[in-house]
Amino acid sequence: MRTHCSNKTAAFTFKVSTLVLCMLATGHSLAAETATEYVRVIGQAASINEALKEQRKSDSISSVVHADAIAKLPDDNAAEALQRIPGVSTERDQGEGRFVTVRGLGTDLNAVTINGTLVPAPEASRRGVALDVLPAELVQSLTVIKTLTPDMDANSLGGTIQVESLSAFDHDGLFYTAAVEGGYDEKHEEYSPKVSGAVSQKFSLGSGTDNFGVAAALSWQERTFGSDNVETGGKWENGLLEETEMRQYDIERERLGAGLNFDFRPNKNSEYYLRTLYSRFQDNETRQAAGVEFSDPLAINTPGSAEVVRELKEREETQEIKSFVLGGKNRFDQWTLEAQLGYSEASEKNPGGIAGAGFVGEFDDLQYSSTRIPVVKGAASFYDPSRYELDEVEWEKSTAKDKEKNAKFDLSRDYLLNDYASVFKFGAKVSQRTKTNDTEIWKVEDLDTSPAHFGSNGHYELAQFGPTLSSGPIHNQLAQLNLNDWRDAEESVISDYKTSEDIHAAYVMNTIDFDRLRVIAGLRYEDTDFETQGYRILYGESTSVSTQNDYDHWLPSLHLKYQLSSDAILRAAWTNTVVRPNFEQSRPGIYIDGDEAEFGNPNLKALEASNFDLGVEKYFGDASVISMNAFYKDIDHFIYNANVAGTGDWTDFDEAMTFKNGSSAKIYGVELGYSQKWHNFIFGLNSTFSRAKANIEGMVDGELMTRTINFPSQSKVVGNAMIGWENDRVGLRLAANYKSRYLNEISGIDEPEKDLYTDDQVFVDLSGHVNFNKNIQLFFNAQNLTDEVYYNYNGNRHYNAQYEEYGPSYKVGLKFTHF
Predict the structure, then answer these.
(1) What parts of the sequence cross the membrane (predicted)?
(2) Are strands 160-165 and 111-114 parallel, antiparallel or unpaired?
(3) Mean of the per-residue pLDDT values for the chain?
């Protein structure tokens, strides 16, 4: 078994060092202003420099990640690149950065756009987009906007992530690049290939010169990896364990990304573009599990009897994102007209796979030796295939689709107001979104139960796992059956739904420059028409159900940007935003079985937030800045999961799980950022410190009870540290990413000790490159050098809800570039 360092100690050290270094950064900045730099800005510094230029020009409080001169982001995918900027961290899946949190707020509270159009979510239940579906080679820049102006969709609380893909006008002439790399996963001792490339060129059409540009990018990667897991789901009773499950994951993951972009600039007053993007993310996952349910709750190192289920899950899952954006800009004297049409489609498909094949056995003398990693060991019979009999095979296929169509225009006019330069701007947008999910479940019994279903022992590293199940014999038996005879009618409809969400928006805003002060004031209006259809299952009988929920919002805002000096900026903003319920929360399905019920809530109110921001930025030299941003968010109608048994229609129920609106929540915090280039060294530090409280209500023994909780998915501390060194030949970067624990799931109103928390994490990554000449580069990356794990617990950190480890991974590659 592996041993792991204390995350608590590492977290404390990270917090203290970050604060101290950010305080000292002011001194470094003054010294830097008195020195003259002669080192050419290349590689890491070039990327940071371009990002800071965009951040500096922005009218909003924002952070940027920019591809460097050879069109390469500093990380392998968009999610991992974003985690290096202030206030941003990632939720990792199987060790890879996937979902992005902003200012400690979860993925579903943020929005993602590609080339100006909203990206729908492939997953059936979420609004949040997994950004690992976007290979780094397709991206020119990533921007996180934290204070939204009225001409932007108001659908984010933490921030809006803007993805801009490669354009031919990003380079002076012909540009092309190609790379090949190999990855190595230490846990599975497997190698994984990747190839990628991009090309762009400008052409002369008609009487113009270099006025038409074409850019294309392609990326393909195949990765073999996995993880070891043990989870109890919080099944503890007074320190005694009720059940646990050991899981071994083996995954083959394939990514394919392609983009083709066209730009036409016939004259200095007109420009038109077509942006296209395709991304496919395919997982072939095999999960071996050994689940143990003790006859009586069991103490540590104490033998006891239990029922054991050895289970196989095998499925293929494919996620696709398609995006098409057609737009243009024209200037007529003092007027500027911009228009855009966008279409995006996301899907997640499982063509059919084993959702669970369980073999059951009864055993004595089973025990566990740790409450944090409660793996089970037993006598030889526990590992004997002949002691298990097949109980049931569950077969599942599903399709989820999310389509977004939108059209918008923006019209602005430059004018003078009492000799002050001003811009008046107004516009409108119509978007139509449709989300559907269709799941089919078959449950087959009375199959052959021979030990022939078992193969070799598992390669599980947390304990002795025992024999694993083979899918071949199960597939052979299912092929001889008529699956329609085994369809589970209830399970096949309860998760099905179709949701339509139409948003009509209009805004007006005015920008005026008073010498050093820029003021942006405006008002946005959004009207939402929501309709959802699904199924209600009452005691075995299913009926269709549909619900409408229409609402609107008036959203004023005020932005101030004051130039303290040529290199220092003071910013302030008051904004109002709205985040709509995700699709799991608003689904109409209701499932009732006896005195237990589970259902969505399509009548949920949208989360409304009034946001206040104040920040200052000081720029000095190449790739150098120090910044501080304070923020406060006053939130109404935040959404949480709740047990409403004992209230209203659920008075006679023991359990009725759904989603409710909370009354109010408040989030406040500060972001500290520091970046500096000093000779050949690059330093970067940033931390976000925040606090969040919310009130929830529920019935306990017929009485209304109120409890104060942390805001769900809100990390109190998020931080990044980076040190790099480079010259014309060699570059190195060591980066660390920290996220403190957060509330993952709320238990009963009177059971705070059973709330589910995700523990803090520290990831350390190393990357570097060697330039053989100006065209050829050797690069390498090492991720998760500290062998960090994912850990959930209920109330007490010592008692497991879920533990998972992935191990480090390594990559090395060769890149050829012409520009």
Answers:
(1) none
(2) parallel
(3) 87
Indicate the Cα dihedral angle 242, 248, 252, 256, nearest 10°.
40
Domain boundaries, the chain: 7-818
Q: How far apart are CA 758 and CA 714, in angstroms?
A: 10
515 φ/ψ angles, rounded to the nearest 5 degrees: 55, -105
Kindly tell me if the per-residue pLDDT of 531 is higher than 60: yes
- Give Cβ neighbours of residue 175 (< 8 Å, ≥ 6 apart): 71, 168, 198, 199, 200, 201, 818, 819
Q: Hey, is 728 helix, strand or coil?
A: coil
Q: Give the pLDDT score at 37.
A: 31
Cα–Cα distance between 404 and 733 in angstroms, integer?
39
Share of the chain above pLDDT 70, in %: 92
Give yes or no for residue 21 having a pLDDT over 50: no
Return phi, psi of residue 155, to 5°: -105, 40
How confident is residue 649, by pLDDT bands cut at 50, 70 and 90?
Answer: confident
Continuous H helices in 295-437: none
How far the first Cα of the chain sits from its last, in Å, is 50
Percent of residues in the chain assigned helix, strand, coil, to nearest 5: 10, 60, 25
Task: Give mean pLDDT, residues 97-122.
Answer: 84
519: tokens are 């003021």
> 3-state class of 14 per DSSP?
helix
For residue 45, the surrounding DSSP H or E stretch is helix 43-57
The domain 7-818 is classified under which CATH number: 3.40.50.10050, 3.40.50.2000, 2.40.170.20, 1.10.150.120? 2.40.170.20
Nearest to 261 by CA among 253, 272, 252: 272
Return d(Cα 274, Cα 262) in angstroms, integer: 5
Residues 6+ apart with CB under 8 A from 565: none
